Amino acid sequence: MKSKVEEALACFNSGFDCSQAILSTYCEEFGLEKETALKLSCGFAAGMRRLGETCGAATAAYMLIGLKYGKYLPNDNPSKERTFELVQEFERRFAAQNQSTNCRELLGFDLKNCERCMATDDTLEEALSALSPVFQALDSEVTVNKVNITTRELAEQHHFISSPTIRINGVDI
């Protein structure tokens, strides 16, 4: 049986975003169907709509805290306050562990633009050149497949995670 961490990683590696992987892994414990959780959390991905703001994994945790403790009756302000306290505590711990809750800072690049992509070919060529003696010693051949992602459909088809993406045997490195 998979652990929750393994389940979330498998969801993420299958093409879903951080927010979706976290919320859908834990949602059923709080009475929310997996499909609904995936749809609900989609807009929170990539730092809130690909803006690089609050981390999707963190926003999914906020939603889970809300599912467990959140206010659902008009006058239940103690539940609202408890939820706010727990979200603030989660954020404090997350930031202490990761130095930020900001997606752009956590990833080290801005999801709104692709300036980082420009050097990918050169970086890949340099890496392959540097590793060439290793490949030769292992009698191993390297095949490079470059795919220029120009549409949302292509991104979905190739489970495009970030820009740029370099994968070895299907695993994003």
Structural class: mainly alpha
Instruction: Indicate the proportion of strand residues.
Output: under 5%
Q: Looking at the structure, what is the overall shape?
A: elongated
* Number of distinct helices: 9
Helix content: 55-70%
Give the SSE order as H and E letters: HHHHHHHHHEE
**Alpha-carbon Rg, integer:** 20 Å
Mean pLDDT: 79
Give me the side-by-side strand order of the main sheet.
Answer: 1-2
Extract low-pLDDT stretches. none
Distance between the termini: 27 Å
Describe the largest sheet. 2 strands, antiparallel
What is the number of beta strands? 2
Quaternary state of this entry equals single chain
Précis, in short:
By secondary structure, this protein is mainly α.
Question: Any overview of this molecule?
Answer:
The protein has helices at 4-13, 18-26, 34-42, 45-48, 56-69, 77-98, 103-107, 120-137, 152-157; strands at 167-168, 171-172. With 173 residues, the protein is mainly α. The protein has a two-stranded antiparallel sheet. A hairpin with a 2-residue loop joins strand 1 and strand 2. Helix 2 runs antiparallel to helix 3 (34-42), helix 2 runs parallel beside helix 5 (56-69) and helix 5 (56-69) packs antiparallel against helix 6 (77-98). The longest helix is centred in the middle third of the chain and has 22 residues, at 77-98. It is elongated.
